[in-house]
Amino acid sequence: MSDEQEVITEAHGAGSGQMRELIEELAVSRFESDDAETDVPLAALDDGSVHRLANGGGSVVVTTDSHVVTPLFFRGGDIGRLAVAGTVNDLAMMGATEPTALTCSLIVESGTPVDTVERVMESMRETSEEAGAPITTGDTKVMGSGEIDTLAINTTGVGIVQQGGHVPDAGLSPGDKLIVTGTVGDHGISLLSEREGFDFEGDLQSDVAPVNDLVAAAMDAGKITAMKDPTRGGLATSLNEMASKGGVGLEIDERSIPVSGAVASAGEVLGIEPLNVANEGKVVLGVASEDADAVLEAIRNHPQGADAAIVGEAVDDHVGRVILDTGFGNRYLTEPEGEQLPRIC
What we know:
The chain is an alpha+beta fold. It has two domains: 115 residues, CATH 3.30.1330.10; 156 residues, Phosphoribosyl-aminoimidazole Synthetase, Chain A, domain 2 (Alpha-Beta Complex). Helices cover 29% and strands 24% of the residues. It contains eight helices and 15 strands. It has a seven-stranded mixed beta sheet. A hairpin with a 2-residue loop joins strand 4 and strand 5. Helix 2 packs parallel to helix 3, helix 4 packs across helix 7 and helix 5 runs antiparallel to helix 8. The mean pLDDT is 91. Pfam families: AIRS, AIRS_C. Belongs to the HypE family. InterPro entries: HypE (IPR011854), PurM-like_C_dom (IPR010918), PurM-like_C_sf (IPR036676), PurM-like_N (IPR016188), PurM-like_N_sf (IPR036921). This is Hydrogenase maturation factor.
């Protein structure tokens, strides 16, 4: 009988099954409540929680996220842009496309150049203005040298939606179409290549950006039944979560999934599947079948959505599973195991 103590590993932060099991064991079991005013509770493990306001005044959406990335500054963005965009996007995934306020908490390693922190703060300011998401409060802590790797940021976001107007990630029904708003794998593949010093040809850079304006355009164009931003664990994890939570199967056409030539080539060289790595400026939407073409057109007319595509649909077969049509046959698309790319978001 082993008395070896269980420990947290990088795989617990990868965004897939091991992470969800850890959260359910450590957090949900302790903090979940039976509050009747909570439309999306902690146990839903969605991108945020949704709480009804008094007198039918809508609902407040709350989300929080912590951000660590190596390097701090990378092609297409930096940890500051990542922190603001990530939290704004989590609000948008719940239907709150006009953020009320963000918080900003910094944890900084002693000895970090002030110029480094100033660059991050300026990036956060620019991104918050881009997203229309004011930063209104925060906190700063300084750790000893070696107690933290340079800088970590926590951001919390608050937004308002009309009562019943939130969009869960569990809302798929058979017949709904799945839309991906742009090329996948850009963030994770770009960071890995930069971190490892690979110089691939092509325009390879992170896609980190706030998507709340894009989501608002999609919601105005038709009925959105479910949303997820494919961050940790990539598109594969997001699709599997949406299938499992919605109680449906998904049939996906691999050839329809937008992947840039640069990402496909770099992923092949690195042995990394673009469907399994993080994106920071893309969305997966479930859309009512009759509205799919109109929503796709609205997304493609947005500057961030030119490469958007309908990639599949929800079905009432093989519930909780994702079937990938490769063009040569079908296979299950499963969640990645372990942590392929540590410290990318």
